[in-house]
């Protein structure tokens, strides 16, 4: 008999016991479990089976405890099974659902983190696209990014700015930026529009400073003291046609008069087919009332001064100016002038054609086409300037060289080079080669750069 059936209080006499015991499952209607599936120790089933087991009689020897490690019997205490059954009941009634396994929790957290990461990455990617596409406009509207204008008080040094006839606000704004006066190319023009500035800009050369504010530059251009009277700035590498055009734009001398003045080189003691190469590039300020011939004579005399300073004999002036004009057009950096001069001299000494693109471009009329590459038509055109076709030097110089190019023509660097190519048009990096195989590798380098920089003027 079990301890529960021997209790003094029965379910029929005690209402509380009736409710409690009524909730217990009837052991007689439970399906029998196979003997090979014993109850799990500590489970509710184990408690019920312990409660239903008959109490041991006095003097009996309990079975060895599973907790005995050496075969000795462990003492067993006798408990009231009704209490055990009640304890199991209350544990059954108040028991919480089993906790979610930690592995499933970790998996759920990982999935949640992945979802959040994907959302953040998507938002970041979208934001990056928007910024790359519209960042400049957003910065402009919000006032972010670097300042477009120099700060007051930064002005230093000297700068020359040429305003040509017909120049408007946009052209002057670009000229100020090119001369290093303003920080950005559009800041001066933007100021004119924003402040509704109405003024007249007179052609000529103006003495300004570097790193001026747009407002300070405007004030300086309006000051007659900063305008050089009857002046012109002529950069290196221009042809005769371009030179006299620039003079007419800033000096009070008609272009037609200048065109007539350059027709006869003998008027200036020059024994050459033209004055190409003889109109020296520099800053000029002419006397009031100077004529076209006065202007041209001044430029030719300045070229003679440079030839004399470089030690050029009178008999070699035309030849040296021709070589110097090629150097001026071919070399991207002054540091390479003397090496380009050596390549020209080495090829002439070995009886090789010069094959200089600048000469082909000049002879075909595309010297200032804006491209470093020579067209097939120009390269194959049979004219006395195209060194891809003719032997030796071109018929005349192809541009007006400066002091450095003239000196380089007289004093080439020492070296075995026969080829050169500029592999980076932005930096001017140039590779000089001795063999054609080396030159081909350098040309490939230039072609790769041009592919990566399609708007660079290749």
Describe what is shown at a glance:
With 458 residues, this protein is mainly alpha-helical. The protein is 44% helix and 7% strand. Among the domains are: 156-228, Endolytic murein transglycosylase (Dna Ligase, domain 1, 2-Layer Sandwich), CATH 3.30.1490.480; 235-309, no CATH class; 315-452, no CATH class.
What would you note in describing this structure?
This protein has a 3-stranded antiparallel sheet with strand order 1-2-3, with helices on one face. A two-stranded antiparallel ribbon has the order 4-5. Strands 6-7 form a two-stranded antiparallel sheet. By secondary structure, it is mostly helical. It has helices at residues 15-22, 44-52, 81-94, 102-142, 169-178, 187-194, 214-222, 240-250, 255-261, 292-309, 317-330, 337-349, 357-364, 376-380, 403-410, 436-452; strands spanning 156-163, 204-210, 227-228, 231-233, 283-285, 419-424, 429-433. Helix 9 crosses helix 10, helix 11 packs across helix 15 (403-410) and helix 12 packs parallel to helix 15 (403-410).
């Amino acid at each position: 008999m079990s301890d529960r059936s021997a209790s003094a209080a029965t379910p029929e006499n005690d209402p509380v016991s009736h409710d409690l015991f009524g909730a217990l499952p009837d052991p007689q209607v439970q399906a029998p479990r196979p003997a090979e599936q014993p109850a799990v120790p500590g489970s509710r089933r184990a408690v019920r089976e312990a409660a239903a087991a008959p109490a041991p009689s006095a003097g009996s020897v309990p079975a060895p405890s599973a907790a005995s490690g050496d075969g000795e019997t462990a003492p067993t205490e006798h408990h009231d099974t009704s209490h055990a059954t009640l304890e199991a009941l209350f544990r059954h009634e108040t028991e919480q659902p089993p906790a979610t396994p930690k592995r499933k929790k970790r998996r759920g957290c990982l999935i949640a983190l992945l979802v959040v990461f994907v959302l953040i990455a998507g938002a970041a990617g979208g934001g990056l696209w928007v910024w790359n596409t519209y960042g400049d406009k957003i910065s402009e509207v919000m006032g972010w990014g670097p300042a477009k204008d120099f700060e007051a008080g930064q002005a230093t040094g000297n700068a020359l700015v040429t305003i040509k006839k017909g120049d408007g606000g946009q052209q002057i704004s670009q000229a100020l930026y090119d001369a290093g006066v303003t920080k950005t190319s559009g800041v001066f023009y933007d100021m004119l529009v924003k402040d509704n500035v109405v003024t007249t800009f007179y052609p000529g050369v103006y003495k300004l400073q570097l790193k001026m504010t747009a407002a300070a530059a405007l004030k300086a251009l309006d000051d007659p003291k900063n305008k050089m009277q009857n002046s012109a700035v002529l950069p290196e590498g221009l042809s005769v046609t371009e030179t006299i055009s620039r003079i007419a734009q800033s000096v009070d001398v008609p272009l037609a008069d200048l065109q007539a003045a350059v027709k006869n080189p003998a008027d200036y003691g020059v024994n050459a087919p033209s004055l190409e190469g003889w109109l020296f590039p520099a800053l000029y300020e002419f006397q009031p009332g100077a004529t076209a011939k006065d202007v041209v004579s001044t430029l030719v005399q300045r070229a003679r001064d440079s030839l004399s300073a470089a030690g050029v004999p009178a008999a070699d002036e035309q030849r040296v100016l021709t070589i110097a004009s090629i150097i001026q057009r071919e070399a991207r950096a002054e540091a390479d002038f003397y090496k380009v001069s050596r390549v020209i001299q080495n090829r002439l000494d070995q009886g090789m054609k010069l094959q200089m693109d600048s000469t082909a471009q000049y002879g075909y009329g595309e010297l200032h086409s804006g491209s470093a590459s020579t067209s097939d038509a120009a390269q194959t055109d049979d004219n006395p300037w195209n060194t891809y076709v003719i032997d030796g030097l071109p018929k005349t110089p192809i541009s007006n060289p400066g002091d450095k190019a003239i000196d380089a023509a007289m004093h080439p660097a020492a070296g075995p080079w026969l080829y050169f190519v500029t592999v980076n048009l932005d930096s001017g990096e140039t590779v000089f080669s001795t063999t054609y195989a080396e030159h081909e590798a350098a040309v490939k380098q230039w072609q790769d750069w041009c592919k990566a920089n399609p708007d660079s003027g290749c």
